[in-house]
Amino acid sequence: MPFATQPVRRVAAAEGIRPSGHWPHTIPAVRQLLTDGLDLDPGVTFLVGENGTGKSTLVEAVAVAFGLSPEGGSTGARLTTRATESPLADDLRLTRGVGAKRAGFFLRAETMHGFYTYLEHNPKTSGPPEPVFHEMSHGESFLTLIRDRFTRQGFYCLDEPESALSFATSLAVVGVLGQLASNGSQVLCATHSPVIAHVL
């Protein structure tokens, strides 16, 4: 992926922001990001760690700073039920490629059922109708959504997608992520799954 077209080249503290003694700055991974910044490579970047290490907080904050809804969805989706996101996005500055695409998607496992309802209440005005995600199993709906929505070149953030996936569907998701990377997209994924994190 050419440097100029990379959706997010670097994540760092916004001007005037220094790590404080308040959450989420007290999370070690967040503090390190605010202190040192994080260069994102082209292709797929995985954040791996135990619960409470800050990987989901980081992915959420980067997604929101990019312009995606904190509750998930594509660029332009404005699903809002109850604000649970951290304020970290306001403390970040993203360095983007000059020619980068603005398209993106945030897949957040814990809010996807709300996103499916949002899609039912806000149907597409052109093209084929959306699949009826609520009528699918949890894993089937995730995989269908990923295959249906992760098609355009852009920036894709995933927060623990494996929570809904079997071994077989995890491998299918790995295939989609690999295809995105080969097509010039960029992926940031928080995961516990050794299947997802180590196959690519």
Structure description:
This is AAA family ATPase. One of its GO terms (biological process) is monoatomic ion transport. Its main location: membrane. It is found in: Cell membrane. InterPro entries: ATPase_AAA_core, P-loop_NTPase, Rad50/SbcC_AAA, Siderophore_ABC-ATPase. With 200 residues, the chain is α/β, with parallel strands linked by helices. It has a single domain, classed as Rossmann fold (3-Layer(aba) Sandwich), CATH 3.40.50. The chain is built from six helices and eight strands; from the N terminus they run E-H-E-E-H-E-E-E-H-H-E-H-E-H. The strands form two sheets. A five-stranded mixed beta sheet has the order 3-8-7-6-4, sandwiched between helices. The protein has a three-stranded antiparallel beta sheet with strand order 2-1-5. Strand 7, helix 5 and strand 8 form a beta-alpha-beta unit. Helix 4 packs parallel to helix 5. The chain is globular, with a radius of gyration of 16 Å. The two termini are 16 Å apart.
According to DSSP, the number of beta strands is 8
Distance between the termini: 16 Å
State the domain count: 1
Class computed from helices, strands and strand pairing? alpha/beta
SSE order and pairing:
Layout (H helix, E strand, L loop, with lengths): L9 E4 L14 H9 L1 E2 L3 E6 L6 H12 L6 E2 L17 E4 L8 E5 L3 H10 L16 H12 L5 E5 L7 H16 L3 E6 L2 H6 L1
Parallel strand pairs: 3-8, 6-7, 7-8
Antiparallel strand pairs: 1-2, 1-5, 4-6
